[in-house]
Structure formats: structure tokens, C-alpha cells
Design a protein that fits this description.
CATH superfamily of the largest domain: P-loop containing nucleotide triphosphate hydrolases
Number of helices: 10
Largest sheet: 5 strands, parallel
Bound molecules: adenosine-5'-diphosphate, magnesium ion
Helix content: 40-55%
Number of strands: 8
Distance between the termini: 61 Å
CATH topology of the largest domain: Rossmann fold
Structural class: alpha/beta
Number of domains: 2
CATH architecture of the largest domain: 3-Layer(aba) Sandwich
Order of helices and strands: EEEHHHEHEHHEHEHHEH
Radius of gyration: 19 Å
Length: 242
């Protein structure tokens, strides 16, 4: 029989409940012999600590995102079915390195859907890094700066090790050989390690996307995320304003 180690009074202020419901939130479990063994949530806590400060986090606008609220509640239920299934199995999906890929015109709800997935992963205690791709590339460039606080390798390692990497608006960046190389390096490394990626892109034609971000990267993303889910419909930004 395993019992949670009682919560000490000097509890880490960042500690949260055990996402697995096994320990008291301190990352340790007591065996019958009185030995403290690490709870499986410890690795997740360490991962979350590593990912802290990466990307934008879930931006304020998307923090309350849910299937019951606009704009997601207004989307075609047929489109939502696989997203719901993915979110319901978020722990296993992240564990097995599966992802999702939302493709469609501007304002159709892609970023909201991807945020919903990222939020579910965070709630499951997983480490998540949310990045508009243009910002990700800017952060990588910044590490080349001699005054920069972090090294390229450290950022690269963290990008490859978070449980879920959310790449928003892929293909919106200016296409250069350097950009193609960066995207491939990250996506390929994650593909090799079977780590999840959630992607949104406005480019609805796969050939055009291959041209924009490189065929090898697209091919890896297809393996991780499966076929892109087309998110079609009116620009919700325009219709909600009008
Ligand atoms: N919390 C929210 N409540 C209501 N509408 C929202 C909310 N968040 C986003 N929206 C609206 O949903 C629409 C789609 O947003 P978004 O998911 O960013 O689309 P896309 O990524 O496809 O461009 C926009 O009109 C946006 O303003
Ligand atoms: Mg978007």
C-alpha cells in the first residue's frame, strides 16, 4: 500500500495538488515500509518548472476558453468532435506524443481551439510552451545576442523537452533558409522524441505550406498531428463586431 507523504508546513508556495491524485502535492509517496518514493507527478513538476517563463503562457484573452463559450461554442459540432476526444484523452495523447493541427482562414477560431488544448494539458499537470511562431523565431535570434541571458542550446533543449509545444500561426513568418532550418530542427527533434505539438495555420493548401515552411517539416507535423482539421466559416472577428 502506498500512502501520500503528509504535507509539510514548509510547503513549496508553487506546489499544486497532485494532478494524478496520488500524493499530497509534494511529489512524494510513502510505502508501507515507511520509505518515501517519488510520485509520478514529480517529473511533471520538474518539466513545468523548466517550461516556466517560456513563450506567452495562455494569454489573458484565452484563459477562460471552453467548449461552452464563444467562439468555440459557435463552431461546427462535427469539427469539435475530434478536439473533444483529444482533450478528453489529453494525458495519454501528450504521453504518446500526439498533436492537433488547426488549419483555416483568419478569425475562424483556430487559436481558441489550440488554447483549449494547451489549457487542458496544463490542467493535467503537463509542461506547455505557447508560442506565436514569429515570437519563437525572435527569441531564438535573441539568444545570438552577446548580451542575451540564455544560450541557444538551452532554449532549444527546453523547446524540445516541454510536453506540449503550441505553435501558433505557423507560416505567417517571413520565409528564409534560416527560418526553415530552425523550424525543422525543433519539429524534427520533437518528432524523434515523440513529443506533442499543436499547430495553427492560415495556410490551407498543403503544397503552399510545404513551400512556406519546408516539405520535411510538414511531413513530420503530419505524423505528429495527423491530417489538419479544417476550421472553416466566417471571420468571427468581423461577425462579432458587426
Ligand atoms: N473569450 C472570447 N470570447 C468571445 N470571443 C472570443 C474570445 N476569444 C476570441 N474570441 C473571438 O473569436 C474569434 C476567433 O478568434 P481566434 O481563435 O483568434 O481565430 P483564428 O486563430 O482562427 O484567427 C475572434 O473574433 C475573437 O475575437
Ligand atoms: Mg490565430
Amino acid at each position: 500500500m502506498l500512502r501520500p507523504v503528509p504535507d509539510p508546513s514548509d510547503r513549496d508556495p508553487d506546489a499544486t495538488d497532485c494532478p494524478l491524485g496520488r500524493c499530497e502535492g509534494n511529489g512524494w509517496i510513502l510505502t508501507d515500509a515507511g520509505e518515501a518514493i517519488p510520485c509520478d507527478c514529480r517529473e511533471r513538476r520538474i518539466g513545468r518548472a523548466i517550461s516556466r517563463g517560456m513563450g506567452t503562457g495562455i494569454p489573458k484573452k484565452f484563459r477562460g476558453v471552453s467548449f461552452d463559450r464563444k467562439p468555440i461554442a459557435d463552431l461546427d459540432p462535427f469539427v469539435l468532435r475530434p478536439v473533444r476526444a483529444f482533450v478528453e484523452g489529453i494525458d495519454r495523447n501528450v504521453e504518446e506524443g500526439h498533436g492537433l493541427w488547426f488549419m483555416g482562414d483568419v478569425g475562424t477560431g483556430k487559436t481558441s481551439l489550440a488554447m483549449l488544448v494547451s489549457q487542458a494539458a496544463e490542467k493535467a499537470g503537463r509542461s506547455v510552451a505557447v508560442y506565436p511562431v514569429t515570437r519563437l523565431l525572435a527569441e531564438i535570434k535573441d539568444t545570438y545576442d552577446s548580451d542575451s541571458t540564455g544560450s541557444y542550446m538551452s532554449l532549444f533543449r527546453r523547446l524540445c523537452s516541454v510536453d506540449l509545444l503550441h505553435l501558433d500561426d505557423l507560416g505567417a513568418e517571413k520565409r528564409t533558409e534560416w527560418v526553415l532550418e530552425q523550424l525543422y530542427a525543433i519539429v524534427n527533434e520533437r518528432w524523434q522524441d515523440e513529443r506533442s505539438i499543436v499547430v495553427t495555420t492560415n495556410i490551407v493548401d498543403l503544397d503552399e505550406l510545404r513551400e512556406q515552411i519546408g516539405a520535411r517539416t510538414v511531413s513530420r507535423l503530419l505524423e505528429i498531428c495527423g491530417d489538419p482539421l479544417p476550421i472553416m466559416g466566417p471571420d468571427l472577428r468581423v461577425s462579432s463586431a458587426g
